[in-house]
Amino acid sequence: MTPEELSAARDRIVPDVVAGGLRVLFCGINPSLMTAATGHHFAHPGNRFWPVLHRSGFTPRQLRPSEQAELLGLGLGITNVVARADELGAEEFREGGAALTAKVGLLAPRWLAVVGITAYRTAFGEPRARIGPQDRMVGGAHVWALPNPSGLNAHWTVQSMADEYARLRDAVLTRPPTDRPAPGPDSAH
């Protein structure tokens, strides 16, 4: 990918990989320029999302970004707090959090897994949130904050991230599907 092609991807919107009733909707921060240029989520070669997803047991093999649609058959999907590729401000994250809440309410996934604790804290006004399950629900879905799989996140190795993602997978498998409350005005909290 040339620098010109990457620059041309700035502000592009990357379509979600979603369907109604997913087991887990993974939510990135916003698309990288590589993702925007290719149209495939987590497409940057240094991003560890796809190997982590496989090592954690969510996928039977390591998918390539171009195979992202295969997630739907596994009850998984991908969206972002903010859909466009570029630098973002705190206000845009908060607006993205409100839009995400509405989207989750419509799609009704059992779990919303936000990949990036800082984005989660900003989007939902939870400055003390930690990696792991959250007390609040968003759009009626249980919430789990996961480490950001970006190669720039040196605090987490592929294996330590896979271990955390596996904790979510175990919760998905052990929590009965009937635990989702009916959508309503209070379901965002």
Note down, in words, how this protein is organized.
There is one protein chain. With 189 residues, this protein is of the alpha/beta class. 33% of the residues lie in helices and 15% in strands. It has helices at residues 3-8, 33-38, 49-55, 90-107, 117-124, 158-174; strands at 24-28, 76-80, 111-115, 132-138, 141-146. It has a five-stranded mixed β-sheet. Helix 3 packs across helix 6 and helix 4 packs across helix 5. Residues 180-189 have low confidence and may be disordered.
Quick description:
With 189 residues, the protein is an alpha/beta fold. The protein has helices at residues 3-8, 33-38, 49-55, 90-107, 117-124, 158-174, and strands at 24-28, 76-80, 111-115, 132-138, 141-146.
* DSSP summary, beta strand count: 5
Q: Provide the β-strand percentage band.
A: 5-15%
Assign a percent range to the helix content.
25-40%
Instruction: Provide the spatial order of strands within the biggest beta sheet.
Output: 2-1-3-5-4
Shape: globular
Largest sheet: 5 strands, mixed
Which spans of ≥5 residues are poorly predicted at pLDDT below 50?
180-189
Helix-strand makeup class? alpha/beta
Alpha carbon gap, first and last residue: 42 Å
